[in-house]
Amino acid sequence: MRKTSSSSRTDVHGARAALKALLDNRLNVLIVFAPISWVLDVLAPGSPWVFITASASLIPLAGVIGLGTEALAERSGPALGGFLNATFGNAAELIIAMVALNQGHVELVKASISGSIIGNLLLVLGFSFFLGGLGRRSQKFNRTAATNTAAMLFLAVVALVMPAVFDLSLYGSLQARPPAINRLSLGTAIVLMVAYAGSLIYALTAERDLFRPTQSTTSHGHGGLSTGTAIGLLASGTLLTTVQAELLVGALEPALKQFGFTELFVGVVLVAIIGNAAEHYSAIAAARRDQMTLAVEISVGSSAQIALLVAPAVILYSFAIGHPMSLIFNPFEITAIALSVLATSMVVVDGESNWVEGLQLISVYAIIALAFYFIP
């Protein structure tokens, strides 16, 4: 009887802690759009409003998955915690990409991958520098960790450029889809996964994470969440994200016709921002608290994780379902990623930031976004 009573009190305490953690993030109010999207999908299937409401609901769901992951990581110790953060940190982006791939939206998947990398490096880091620097002469951060992660992003640039160079050199265009391109893409994805696995082994042995801030810098007070509550948040967030991603992708075509957007623009800008909104909020909030090392590690680390885990995982998944996706990206995407990595490397090399540098990064992102908007 005592055990039952104690277990009941623990469950209640865990539920209250979870509710408090969810209410602390203002973005979570957008979760109300989930049931709204379900009603609209029944009453007006194919309406662009289904796309809009499903998109809005995905913003807090990425944060719910992140909350569950962080709580589990805090209870697992530095080594296993780093593994959990590295594995589930970008689960929302991976789920959206796989759902879109199942429905045949290959270009949307590629665009969302490149857009996530570009958005984290330019938009999130830019706003972190800009808003964090307002009212301050400058802010300092750990440049060693930032430059190490930026170096990993160079591997991503190589992985994206080489298939395109191969295609151009042998076939003269980026439209060819010979079997050799698919084999090169599959081999490149495997190499990236091996590199990612190496980083996880390092994380487990050195008890730190190359892609996410260390446990000492990311203490958000989730210690009140029990293991069961954290697993529940992770499971429910993943399930709802899958449901909402299905609605979003299913309503994509009507939305494109209604608003005049291209699939490329939606993937690079809209889907990328939606899938990473929770991390955007965390990075900018950290910058305002003058925790620039945390803000830089969130933005740059997330980009590296997308390049080394999400992209190759999607490639392997496409081969598994019998619809191979190559690593031949749009020339604008390749150029934009390369410029983003270059710009980021230039601003983090000195370990110091200010609002002017942030404004410059935001301006670069705005120019790139406009270019994608005007691509027919």
Task: Write structural notes for this entry.
- The structure is a single chain.
- By secondary structure, the chain is mainly α.
- It has a single domain, classed as NCX, central ion-binding region (A middle domain of Talin 1, Up-down Bundle), CATH 1.20.1420.
- About 2% of the residues have low confidence.
Q: Reading side by side through the largest sheet, how are the strands ordered?
A: 1-2
Q: Give the biggest sheet.
A: 2 strands, antiparallel
- Through-space gap between termini: 69 Å
pLDDT < 50 stretches: 214-221
Total strand segments: 2
The named CATH superfamily: NCX, central ion-binding region
**Portion of residues within helices:** over 70%
Order of SSEs, N→C? HHHHHEHHHHHHHEH
Shape: globular
The number of helical elements comes to 13
Q: Look at the structure and give the mean pLDDT.
A: 82
CA-atom Rg in angstroms: 21 Å
CATH architecture: Up-down Bundle
